[in-house]
Amino acid sequence: MKIRLAQLSLLLACLVLWGVLTSPQVPAFYFDNPDKAAFFFGEPLKVLDRLIAWFVSGEIYSHLWVTLVETLLAFAIGTGAGIGIGLWLGLAPTAAAILDPYVKGLNAMPRVILAPIFMVWFGLGMASKVALGVTLVFFIVFFNVYQGVREVSPAILANARMLGASQRQLLRAVYLPSALSWVFASLHNSVGLAFVGAVVGEYLGSAEGVGYLIHQAEGVFDINTVIAGIALLTAFALVLDALVGWIERRLMVWQPSANTSGQL
Amino acid sequence: MPAAVDLSLELDQISCRFASRDDPGKPYLAVSQASLAVREGEFVSIVGPTGCGKSTLLNVAAGLLAPSEGSVRVHGKPLAGINRDAGYMFQADALMPWRSAIDNVTAGLEFRGVPASQALAQGHQWLQRVGLGGFAQRYPHQLSGGMRKRVALAQMLVLNPEILLMDEPFSALDIQTRLLMENELLAIWSSSAAALGGPGKGAQRKSVIFITHDLEEAISLSDRVVVLSAGPATRPIGEFAIDLPRPRDVAEVRLTPRFVELHQLIWHAMKDEVMKAYSKQFKPIELGA
Fold it and tell me: Could you give the ipTM of this predicted complex?
């Protein structure tokens, strides 16, 4: 409780400091003109006004919705492809050995730079943003699944075989759950990257989405709207992260964690 | 051994070679010309120094590992692939951590296509039997080491295998838990005819191959103790019938004079091999003299 209070006061203190330093009423001490601080750093009250205006007019919902859909699609497609290809390469050592340098190369490539190419391929709509998010999510999930498959305990595998599991049953009952535990470990990361893909894609060229709003505002030097957009994205990311945490807790009950002291 | 007695498992002149880590050109001979026959309903322990290839031999019997030479016969029939008549209890934790105790126990039934409701009923019955009736929904990490071993035991026994292969199953447990588990294993083994004897072949006691490095454990449990030589090229070098009366209490039987006699006899046969294995791993301690 005390911690919460301290956290809240810290936030308030920062906001107040920001408000005071950028207020046109306060004489300039660094810039030659009291309006310049507000121009460069925005004003918290105007940012708040902007946020309220967005929600009151309802203008923001369609943009948020677009960003959310892009994020979820990128996450779902990237995760699906990562699990499928991760399982395949994890179980096929020869194919994995052949593809190894290509996988490493693709992963090393700064993939954000693919955004313009995706725009040419998929247009300015949602598809190009989803594609960008997929390239970011895929490798995280892929490497985790690959690792998960290769690090299945030999004793668990041998035990399942002795219990009569066929190859298919091994895949379903041992490899997949083991790989999924690694996927869940990276869930926070991959949802975050899907979000980054969506916003960066919107920022680079689109007609809707929160990233688009920020880009528009930047074009007219409306720093208050830019900061309002960033604040909104931050809150949105925190909500997504909390949601992931909740899902994780429900699905990973079998994993020992710090807060469930395993033993009786 | 009279010819009329049925053999449940025969290992015939088994040799196992592995690619050597230090020198890939020269294979490492882990097991050499090892033969072992287990009668139906017999409890056989295999003892030997650490690293002598005991587990290798058991994996061959289980069909998890194909021998480089030699053959395995199960009830007289040559073994190909996994040994379907055998249950295996591993030294390491082999429960699936993402399944609760009951789901682990019913895994084998599920793999064999037994209807879920029937599997669940049998699984609960076996969890009761190993004293974990109230822990069905717990995940392995929520159970103690001894409880996990009980789940593993139930997981193996629910399939009613005729041959039990056990690879130092209790070696990770503390000594009290270990004695309890050994007694329970004996109780389950000796009642396997009475309680679970379905029609026909199940009516007999199960055959057990129990691997351990603990000679006392081997003697107190078994009908017969087989001593293996130190690796490489492990093979059986001695066999001892254990004529202690049953039913036994594994803790109390250790105090009887006959047990001490047998222990001395077998230890004498083992000692040289243990020293051999030991000297391969460590240089002798220099005593200032």
Answer: 0.84
